[in-house]
Amino acid sequence: MATTVDEAKQRAQDAEEHVRSYKGVMKASTQIGVPFCMALGTFFTALTARAGIGWAFLSFVVVYVLVWWVVKTFFSSH
């Protein structure tokens, strides 16, 4: 009987740890990964469109900040 209670406690602790880990990964991927990938895509699109390196860097920064703000705003309500 004591083993069953110990196993139940361990499972509950593991579940809590998994939830914390999942939330951390999701926060990092949405607030850093998604904006970075979209900004990088915009950067290379500007380069292939021959917009110039300055415009490419500017578009990278603008898209990164805009997407970061949208993702942060969306996930703060959930």
Structure description:
With 78 residues, this protein is mainly alpha-helical. The protein has one domain. It contains two helices and no strands. α1 packs antiparallel against α2. The protein is rod-shaped.
Low-confidence stretches: none
Question: Main β-sheet: number of strands, strand sense, barrel status?
Answer: none
Q: Looking at the chains present, what oligomeric state does this protein adopt?
A: single chain
Shape call: rod-shaped
Structural class label: mainly alpha
List the helices and strands and how they pair.
Elements: H1 2-48, H2 53-76
How would you summarize what this structure contains?
The protein has helices spanning 2-48, 53-76.
Task: Fill in the keyword field for this structure.
mainly alpha, 78 residues
